[in-house]
Amino acid sequence: MDTEDSAVNGLWELLLENGKDMLPGVENGGRVGVLPKRQLAESSGKMIVWEKTTSGVTASECTFDGFQGADVDLLVVAEEKCLLNLWSDPRKDPIRKLREGIRMGEAMVYFLRAKEDLLDKGYEDLTELLGLPRQGCI
Predict the structure, then answer these.
(1) Which CATH number belongs to the domain containing residue 56 in this structure?
(2) Out of 1, 84, 96, 113, which could bridge 117 as a Cys pair, Cβ 3.0 to 4.6 Å?
(3) Residue 134 counted as domain residue
(4) Short-list 52, 104, 56, 49, CA closest to 76
(5) How far apart are CA 128 and CA 110, in angstroms?
(6) Number of domains, the chain
(7) Number of helical (H) and strand (E) elements in the chain, helices listed first
(8) Is 135 inside a domain boundary?
(9) Contact at 8 Å (CB) between 131 and 103?
(10) Position 31 in a domain
(11) Average pLDDT, integer, range 83-92
C-alpha cells in the first residue's frame, strides 16, 4: 500500500472514530462497500468496506473486481466530490452527508443481496436514513 492509500485509510478510520454509528440497525457481519466512481471502470479498483462488528464499524480496503465479485451487501459508488465532503468534517453525521450526495446525484447505492437477506441483516434503518425509497428497494 502506498502513501496515498495509507492517507485514505486514515481518513476512513478518523471518520468512523468521530462519526456516530455508520451502519445503524445493521447486524454484525453486515458489509457496505464505498467505491470512488473513477475506479468503477478499472479492472481492479479499490474500495473501502465498512463492516459491522461487535465492537462497532471497521474500515478496510478491498479490491473491486466487479459487482459479482464484491463481497458486500450494499455498494456505494460516489463521485470524488461526495467522498471529499464525507471527509471534510468527520464530526458531522456522515450518513447525512452521504444522503446529500445521493440526492445531488454524486452517489448511487447498489443492492447486491436479495431483499429478504437485507431485511434479515437489518438494513431497513440505514436505507431509510439514506433517503432511499422503501417500496421496490428494501
Answers:
(1) 3.30.1050
(2) 113
(3) no
(4) 49
(5) 15
(6) 1
(7) 5, 5
(8) no
(9) yes
(10) yes
(11) 76
Q: Do the domain assignments include residue 80?
A: yes
CB 52 within 8 A of CB 25: no
pTM, two decimals, is: 0.82
Kindly report the length of the chain: 138
Cα separation, 138 vs 136, in Å, equals 6
> Containing domain of residue 43, as a range?
3-129
Percentage of residues of the chain with pLDDT beyond 90? 35
pLDDT attached to residue 7 = 47
What's the alpha-carbon Rg for the chain, to the nearest Å?
14
CA–CA distance from 48 to each of 60, 61, 101, 109, 136 (Å)? 6, 5, 17, 14, 27
For residues 23 and 129, what is the distance between their CA atoms, to the nearest angstrom?
A: 10
Of 125, 121, 117, 112, which Cα lies nearest the Cα of 76? 112
